[in-house]
Amino acid sequence: MNVKTNDNQVKPLAATSSRSRSIAFTALSIAIMAVSAWITVPIGPVPFTLQMFAVTFAILVLAPKQAIGAIAGYLALGAIGVPVFSGMRGGIGVLLGPTGGFLWGYLIGVTLAVGLLALFRRRGIDNFAVGMLCGLVFTAVAYACGWFQYMFVAGVGPIESFLVTVAPFIIVDVLKIAAATAVARTVIRAVPANR
């Protein structure tokens, strides 16, 4: 069956539904990221959230363009004031504030992680260890950006910044990455055409 588009070209229905499915998966991932940010345990200037789980899950389940689109869309919504960031906050002030480096780091980290994952998948390697590696690469980049911006904005030294922004989260985030990898592998088996 064919569908007419606005410019009078005829496209197969499968292509239209595939594009709709891609948009739906990307939008759903943005929603999951927002909800995971709202689940917050404040322990200091940087709260515990479920974002590392949600973003790692998106990296592993979505196609590369979808994953990058989801994190870019999430950041754009937050930047214009939609309360999608931790503590139900939004606005450019969050991105420029002491913990905003983590958010910018998400975009850079996702881009690197999906590129790495694509390299492995092209070689036919897609297992739990690869998922963990991609999650760890993403997290390391987010940590580095968050650490640097906190140091710069809060006016503290590198060791103090590390102790506030990275050290308390390492073990918990590795567990979140492992859980996201396990869940993502289950979803990929259930919905194999998504990638």
What does this structure look like?
This protein is mostly helical and 195 residues long. It has a single domain, classed as Orthogonal Bundle (Arp2/3 complex 21 kDa subunit ARPC3). It has eight helices and two strands, in the order ββαααααααα. β1 and β2 form a beta hairpin. It is globular, with a radius of gyration of 18 Å.
SSE layout:
Layout: E1 2-4, E2 10-12, H1 13-38, H2 51-61, H3 64-79, H4 92-96, H5 100-122, H6 128-154, H7 158-165, H8 170-190
Antiparallel strand pairs: 1-2
Helix pairs in contact: 1-2, 1-3, 2-3, 2-5, 2-6, 2-8, 3-5, 5-6, 6-7, 6-8
State the end-to-end distance. Answer: 24 Å
CATH topology: Arp2/3 complex 21 kDa subunit ARPC3
In DSSP terms, counting alpha (H) and pi (I) runs of 4 or more, how many helices? Answer: 8
Helix content range: over 70%
Helix and strand content put the structural class at mainly alpha
Rg result: 18 Å
**Helix and strand element order:** EEHHHHHHHH
- Which strands sit side by side, in order, in the main sheet? 1-2
Poorly predicted spans: 1-5, 8-16
CATH class: Mainly Alpha
Question: Care to give the gist of this entry?
Answer:
With 195 residues, the protein is mostly helical. The chain has helices spanning 13-38, 51-61, 64-79, 92-96, 100-122, 128-154, 158-165, 170-190, and strands spanning 2-4, 10-12.
